[in-house]
Specification:
By secondary structure, the protein is mainly alpha-helical. It is built from ten helices and two strands; from the N terminus they run αααααααααββα. Helices cover about 80% and strands about 0% of the residues. The chain has a two-stranded antiparallel ribbon. α1 runs antiparallel to α2, α2 runs antiparallel to α3 and α3 packs antiparallel against α4. It is globular, with a radius of gyration of 24 Å.
């Protein structure tokens, strides 16, 4: 009887050790997944910084050359400030600074006494500025402790109709998933997507419009297609779901074998 009890205690300890190993393994995988996702968005942010600086340089100003140079340098300084903060992981500060820059632009655009030439420049900057703000806000979500994890209370509050209309339906076609994957691989122009998807132009436009309508892909300042934060989150969640399912199956098979 004593040996039976010892065996039972040993079996229980082994079970607890296995559970602990599986938990640590999943935590490590989630940390790696989060790091890779964050790295992707940091690359996008750097790309948008370069695009913004190119856009600022291309602005045509009707004012004196000295004023034009000073104005462009002020814009570039503001952009460099918040993108540098992103690179240093000061995400909250970056969101605050890009918000101030956006508010500055909005206030000047509605000021009747602000020079029209300056308003013209700000109008050209606003779309790119809004795009960068959305990207940085997505990085902020990734920096939080939650990552892709969802509490049971959150699941209870899900709106199934909205989930179907805004998430499931837009990605329910294999060609749209292929298009998003191709864009992530660097095929950002329409001609490149035609070659990658093997679709006729009309069919490709149809799928692109659906993805754009649901904010799964967007354009950068050079009119290239990029996967939006929302689109990337959906792809990351789908990938993690597949991996979690595979790992659960592998774990079950291992435990059964033992």
């Amino acid at each position: 009887m004593r040996h039976v009890k010892e065996i039972e205690e040993l079996t229980e300890r082994i079970k607890l050790i296995r559970e602990d190993i599986n938990k640590n393994f999943l935590d490590i995988r989630q940390a790696i997944s989060k790091a890779l996702t964050l790295n992707y968005l940091l690359i996008i942010s750097k790309h948008l910084l370069e695009e913004m600086e190119t856009l600022i340089d291309s602005l045509e100003c009707g004012r004196a050359r000295v004023k034009e140079i000073n104005c462009k340098e002020m814009f570039k300084t503001k952009v460099r400030d918040y993108t540098t903060e992103v690179g240093a992981s000061y995400i909250d500060r970056a969101i605050s600074d890009i918000g101030k820059f956006s508010n500055f632009a909005d206030q000047r655009l509605t000021d009747p006494y602000y020079p029209e030439d300056c308003k013209k420049c700000l109008k050209q900057l606003k779309p790119a500025l809004s795009l960068q703000k959305r990207m940085i806000e997505s990085i902020s979500i990734l920096e939080s402790n939650h990552g892709l994890r969802i509490d049971v209370s959150d699941i209870r509050n899900l709106d199934e109709r909205r989930i179907f209309q805004e998430v499931i339906r837009p990605v329910s076609h294999i060609q749209r998933l292929k298009i998003m994957k191709s864009i992530l691989e660097g095929k950002c122009r329409f001609s490149e997507l035609v070659d990658a998807s093997k679709l006729q132009s009309g069919h490709l436009i149809y799928h692109l419009r659906i993805l754009e309508k649901h904010d799964l892909i967007i354009h950068d300042t050079a009119k290239n297609y990029i996967v939006s934060p929302k689109g990337y989150w959906i792809l990351a969640a789908l990938k993690q779901t597949i991996e979690e399912t595979k790992n659960q199956n592998d774990t079950s098979l291992t435990l059964s074998a033992n």
